[in-house]
Amino acid sequence: MSTPKIAVIGLGYVGLPLARLFATKYPVIGFDINEERIKELQSGTDSTLEVEDEILQQVLSDTPQMETGLYCTNQIENISDCNYYIVTVPTPVDHTNRPVLTPLYKSSETVGKVLKKGDVVIYESTVYPGVTEEECVPVLERISGLKFNEDFYVGYSPERINPGDKEHTVEKILKVTSGSTPEVGKQVDRLYASVITAGTHLAPSIKVAEAAKVIENSQRDINIAFVNELAKIFNLMGIDTNAVLEAAGTKWNFLPFKPGLVGGHCIGVDPYYLAQKAQEYGYHPEIILAGRRMNDGMGKYVASEVVKLMVQKDIKIKGSKMLVLGITFKENCPDVRNTKAVDVITNLKSYGAEIHIYDPWASKEEVNEEYGLQIVNQVPDEKFDTIVLAVAHKEFLNIDLRALLNENGVLYDVKGILKCKVEGRL
Ligand SMILES: NC(=O)c1ccc[n+]([C@@H]2O[C@H](COP(=O)([O-])OP(=O)(O)OC[C@H]3O[C@@H](n4cnc5c(N)ncnc54)[C@H](O)[C@@H]3O)[C@@H](O)[C@H]2O)c1
To answer: For the segment 253-280, what is each residue's pLDDT rounded down to a tens digit?
Structure first.
């Protein structure tokens, strides 16, 4: 393999930690179309909080010509002498839950403009099986004028990181790799194996690697949907779901999933990629889509449960003061994309409640821009009729909730973290 010079295309939650890791060993050019993101990274700050500023600053380079290190840019000429291009751009769905491949097409055009003989393009974005070879490769060929598997090659290596998880960082997660020929597969595998301490698994084809990633998240989605369904059933029966799960969990092969809101960029989105492709093949994916329907409806369900409890306590809903704790899509991370806490808020608002939102992690500006909602980053100094603990941020365990709640008030703990706290499991 020629000495790698790596371009990472898309410096978000996935791209930046990966670029930082490769930069400890190779020259890496981080490319992103978002000028603001490039500016903040060049100044040594990562607003996603995935890479600590000090760690980022250790690898930052102020020139694109270096032996090792990371140079961040939005200028295409800076990536023209790379021989590996790793694409880590978003793969969202539209409002009808259909896959949006535009960022993949656009970033493939960018790479196509600088592609040279012998180069390898590795896709990391989560996709349905076939996207790399059937959607991205034709763009690379058209723009570069080069021939696939003769002049240039591709690989696919899905990312498994988990935003906000400081334990399972990129180098500590075994990485699935693949290539467009057996030789290129080995080459891609060696590249990742040189930095991933947890090791690699070379899949037999790109489609296998693509499918593996999308089913990892679909499996998780379906399992959570199942316990969400159980929670609904046991709520009707007046049985404590967490206690049931704890009892059942004493069996060796009972899977420890918890009910909750499934949002974010991955688990709530990726199953739709697989479902879409299955439908193109004439198969209606019943279980995958039932899981999605169940999980997508949980925000509305939580809101209706809160309202039910308030009615039982004779609290007038319209005009009542409610505090929602947490708006990010998961705990201890600032990511608010596709957060289902917003569904809870929207539904509670529709009953006429006055909603206050406190989140110590989320950016006020981003929440306002994305959802038109105002949040505060400090614990409010007033009393509420209802508190909904929507996200399990660690800060919430230290709040004196009694001081914030009116005497007859309702406290709804979506994730059951208060029970875990009392029992010393948090
Ligand atoms: N966030 C996660 O934890 C996670 C985990 C595993 C897999 N994934 C997958 O990884 C992919 C990336 O996700 P993410 O969370 O890092 O997204 P992100 O939105 O945080 O980052 C994507 C970056 O790509 C940039 N970008 C968009 N179009 C571009 C283009 N044409 N050229 C260059 N840059 C471009 C954006 O400006 C952004 O900075 C997705 O497919 C996602 O499903 C994400």
So the answer is: 999 999 999 988 899 999 999 999 999 9
